[in-house]
């Protein structure tokens, strides 16, 4: 069996998709072991952590004065260093059945346009959360691996990974990134646009959790074959009392228009910057969408109509990044080629 095989079986190594919206952790023998919102509830007086993940997200917008629900990542990068470290510690223990003894090697996906300072913050957070070694890889690259794209071949592969904080667009060939761009327009920005739109049009104040629910239920990028509507509750700004109104998919399409058009502009720029040989490959193969934002209804149709290229949604788009990162736990040659310093 040899040492390498033995190492794999007892391996405590982790692949982490440290996302603005969710943190997902993958282990070699079990696959995805943690998939929780990147939210931490903290007592502002004592600085004690009250809850992490799903439990903390339930508290968003509902906490008493001394408890604050914090999202420590903004636009795909660490906004609150200490809180991120606490969150990572908690999730790493969760991945290892609450064991304090383990010091895993960790591979983490990061947005493409992250600065040296931000890279160091991610690395140090993981090391202080008890990792023995930390490798950083670009999210778009690992999303492409997770989506099953042939990135090691000498041909053009284009991926659009729409997360919570950033939309990462990349053209990949021979395991290298030929072009990449991270746009700060993604899931969270869409939620905020829905909140603003409903406030302006209906004088109704809703929370971000409600906005996210609306986006998932009736949000779309292009007209739907069958119109959808839903009732939502919020506080009426003029009357000051709770109120229920009915909204339609056309409303939400209008709310999301700015975000969708910003993503389309970034895609067009990427296509303009791609070398002609690789452009021909992309015309044949099409563009692959991954990340939570890829699940927005008819987004593939909208991008396809406006670029004239075939567009596909990856299988299980939400977990592409972590599954791609997970594949690197056993493919050290590829990891050596693609990790970022």
Features:
27% strand; 341 residues; 12 helices; disordered N terminus; flat; Actin, Chain A, domain 4; 18 strands; Nucleotidyltransferase, domain 5; alpha+beta; 5-stranded mixed beta sheet
The best one-word shape is flat
**C-alpha-based Rg, rounded:** 21 Å
State the helix count. Answer: 12
Could you name the CATH class of the largest domain? Alpha Beta
What structural category do the secondary elements indicate? alpha+beta
CATH fold type of the largest domain = Nucleotidyltransferase, domain 5
What is the H-and-E element order?
Answer: HEEEEEHEEEHEHEHEEEHEHEEHHEHEHH
Strand content: 25-35%
N-to-C terminal Cα separation, in Å?
33 Å
Mean pLDDT: 91
Largest sheet, spatial ordering of strands: 3-2-1-9-10
Q: Provide the CATH superfamily of the largest domain.
A: ATPase, nucleotide binding domain
Question: What is the tally of beta strands?
Answer: 18
Describe this structure in words.
The protein has 341 residues and is of the alpha+beta class. The chain has three domains: 2-141 and 321-338, Nucleotidyltransferase, domain 5; 142-185 and 261-318, 2-Layer Sandwich (Nucleotidyltransferase, domain 5), CATH 3.30.420.40; 187-255, Alpha-Beta Complex (Actin, Chain A, domain 4). The protein has twelve helices and 18 strands. α3 crosses α4. The model is unreliable at 1-10 (pLDDT under 50).
Give a topology summary.
Layout: H1 2-9, E1 14-18, E2 22-27, E3 31-37, E4 40-43, E5 49-52, H2 54-58, E6 67-70, E7 73-74, E8 77-78, H3 81-95, E9 105-110, H4 116-128, E10 133-138, H5 139-146, E11 157-162, E12 167-173, E13 176-183, H6 187-202, E14 204-205, H7 208-218, E15 229-236, E16 242-248, H8 249-273, H9 276-285, E17 287-290, H10 299-307, E18 311-313, H11 320-327, H12 332-338
Parallel strand pairs: 1-9, 9-10, 11-17, 17-18
Antiparallel strand pairs: 1-2, 2-3, 4-5, 4-6, 7-8, 11-12, 12-13, 14-15, 15-16
Helix pairs in contact: 3-4, 5-11, 6-7, 6-8, 8-10
